[in-house]
Amino acid sequence: MLPEEILEKVPRSFDIIGSKQKAVAIVEFAEELEEYESVVAEAIMSLHRNVASVLAKKSARNGEFRTRGLRLVAGDPDTEVLHKESGCLFRLDPKTVYFSPRESSERERIAASVVDGERVLVMFSGIGPFPICIARRHRNATVTAVELNPRAHNYCVENIHLNGVGERVEAILGDVRIVFRDLDKTYDRVLMPLPKGAYMYLDIAIPLLKDGGIIHFYHWAPEDDLFREAEELLTQTALEAGRGLEILKRVKVSQYSPRLWKIRIDAMIPYK
Ligand SMILES: C[S@@+](CC[C@H](N)C(=O)[O-])C[C@H]1O[C@@H](n2cnc3c(N)ncnc32)[C@H](O)[C@@H]1O
After folding, report:
1. Which of 194, 208, 253 to probe ligand 1 with, by most ligand atoms within 8 A of CB?
2. Splitting the chain (272 residues) into consecutive groups of 10 residues, what average pLDDT does each group show?
3. 66 Cβ closer than 6 Å to some ligand 1 atom
């Protein structure tokens, strides 16, 4: 159904979000494929019987909510799904909230590093994958999740209940900068999963840590100089807050574009 030279442009991989009952495929189409998008979408749906809708990426992630333009190419216009991952359930609509199924192993790694009994803060919590993953793995941990996008927050509240962790995960809607103006709490661990911009909130995050608390700081970094800027930002902010800093781990998390990486620095923040 497609000319030979166009066939080469058909994407070989794409994200599928959802369950065996109903899923959505999110596809990046090359410009040359524009007039064939629906042929490709129908083929995807016939190969993956659970895919009920095919969405085409129309922009990079943008704005404060880190969502992207997505256009329905074929299938059901209702793109809300129930995604299953490592024993957790996440209800979400990729058109209105951030979610990446590719980050499941990162969520597992972070959840594995949490110690039972900890009080954890997840800033920029989205629909709740980190908080829920942590709370399901550690029956004695409590988690606070703070999210700015009201739709993502609402899904987070629903997902907390779907996963039976309502007593240990508290979801707060708001800007972390404003939420923590009035919230007088400290945490054993703070996660900052907003690579584009988490650094602007380090001055809030560091004072929220208990003596010896751990921060997981995400940042974008160029391939030829992966950790320097993130380390400088952390060191400078800890210094300004009158706190110490010991780097525990430097991690290349995933590649964003040919020369840009998402990295993570784990650091321990003691009192001086
Ligand atoms: C990269 S997404 C990560 C979401 C989630 N942690 C996940 O892994 O799926 C970052 C999230 O931070 C939220 N956000 C951006 N600025 C924020 C702020 N100042 N306070 C609270 N949440 C914010 C966005 O709405 C978005 O949902």
Report:
1. 194
2. 92 96 97 95 97 97 97 98 97 98 97 97 98 97 98 98 98 97 91 98 98 98 98 98 98 95 98 94
3. yes
